[in-house]
Amino acid sequence: MDQGIYTAAAGAIAIEERLAMISNNLANINTAGFKKDAVVFEDFQRALDTARLAPGQYRTVPVDVVVGRQYIDTAQGAFQETGSPLDAAIVGEGFFVVATDSGMRYTRAGSFLISPEGLLVTPQGHAVQGQGGDITVGTGKVSIDSRGTVMVDGNVVDVLQIALIEDEALVREGNALFSVRQGYAPEVMDAPEIRQGYIETANVDPVVEMVGLITTQRAYEAFQKMIRSVDETYTQSMHNVGMTA
């Protein structure tokens, strides 16, 4: 009976994690460059020694359902045309590099602005990085070609720095930003493909996420019913033992 409680409780905890993940995905459905979270569940096998088996032998039974791996799904989102010369989207792999107070960060959100100092920045004020560092565009007409070359009034000022990062090295932060795990050094892409006047939308499919939300809520309710059922059975059995004592 204890095993039933543990299994149901472990399943409920795993489902709670998935509910939180889906809720966060849906909350960021309109966040440019957002990459959704995904999760893989596993059965945790616990070895149980039994008196009925010979010494040194054991049997395993599935006891817990646990979150085996939660990861960032970096699949490309759809492109949305904005017409703004300061917007840019990366085709395929890669991340824009921006300088923050906490160090270099990485993003797929290419909706940029010009700061009062004439720098190309994110809406949060982080300086977009080129191969030469901060990109100064001033007040002229900005254009970005398909290889990320930034020009002002037809004159080349820098080339967008696009970083190649393995999925498992990404660490999510706020505002569609990522850092990388300690010990990992992103590579600079030599020939990225850039689309000026576009932004990449979140790679969240609202229909898929809503279906997942409904099925996950139902699974959570099933685990709750299992816990109540096992608890009621245990309470009744203890009551019966007391009556016959």
From TrEMBL:
Ranges of residues in domain Flagellar basal-body/hook protein C-terminal: 195-234
SUPFAM superfamilies: Flagellar hook protein flgE (SSF117143)
Any Pfam family the entry gives: Flg_bbr_C
Key words, A-Z: Cell projection, Cilium, Flagellum
CC per GO annotation: bacterial-type flagellum basal body, rod
GO BP annotation list: bacterial-type flagellum-dependent swarming motility
Flagellar hook protein FlgE/F/G-like D1 domain mapped to chain residues: 89-152
Keyword Repressor: no
PROSITE patterns tied to this protein: FLAGELLA_BB_ROD
InterPro entries from the UniProt entry: Flag_bb_rod_N, Flagellar_basal_body_rod_CS, Flagellar_FlgE/F/G, Flg_bb/hook_C_dom, FlgE/F/G-like, FlgF, LlgE_F_G-like_D1
Flagellar basal body rod protein N-terminal domain mapped to chain residues: 5-35
Similarity-based family: Belongs to the flagella basal body rod proteins family.
NCBIfam families linked: FlgEFG_subfam (TIGR03506), flgF (TIGR02490)
Protein name: Flagellar basal-body rod protein FlgF
Biological source species: anaerobic digester metagenome
